[in-house]
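Page 42, continued from yesterday. The earlier attempt failed because a stray header line got pasted into the input along with the sequence. Redoing it now with the clean sequence only.
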Amino acid sequence: MAIHSFLSKFGLTTNESKIYLFLLEYGASIASLIGKRLNIKRVTVYPALEALLKKDLIAPFQKDKVTYFEALPPEEFVQRCKEKIARETELKREAEAVVPALKALANKRRQPVLEVKGKIKYYQGLDAVKQLIYETLEEGPNEQLCFGLNDYHTHHLWDEWKAYTKKRASVGMSVRSLQPDTAAAKAYKKRDKSELRETRLVPHQKFPARCELNIIGDMIALFTSHGEQPTGAKIYNKDMAQVLRSLFELAWERAGEYEKSF
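This time it went through. Structure tokens are written below.
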């Protein structure tokens, strides 16, 4: 039946619907009579009446010191719907107003530089990767061991890379660099003397690097500007740096043999 279906969608339970329709059809009545006529237990009638009162669909009144309940006009359903729409419209307006603040919180989670207890930093986006590259200069006049030639300077910011290299040399940070024998790396090697660096080339088929790994003291920096989302990470860990330094030395020794064949 359409009436019962509507009342259910409106949020009325079966007993609440029965009581409301009974009061609407037969007029005001007391709780005991409602229960008797509808065959609903007394302990069930009162909770249903309380629910209908909260929904503003019935109203109580006193007569001869006895409480009667009467159904409010059916138009109340329309009024309740209007009130609900008004509340939801206001809530929607408030939601739209608070969205910028919520987005700001979400953006904090996706911030371009994320630091974990000062030992690990994660960088996302080209500007953040550029920040990482410049942060390596904070390690001072230590030797930098470098695996791979990041395309940061050849494809993105050549002028800035030149400025970085000049600053690196000025702080006394020398570089030993292992690179695949690409055209960019060969041009890079030719500038070794002027850029305080020594480069050894290896077959690019064996070392198709699109990222760069730097070891400076106990600091490890790994980054790439390749692809849609440049990414990098910086780690301070003595044992990890030592392992990578040992691997570099092994590769550096083997690269000396490769260079004889170029």
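Notes: The chain has two domains: 2-72, 111-259.
Reminder to self: strip header lines before submitting.
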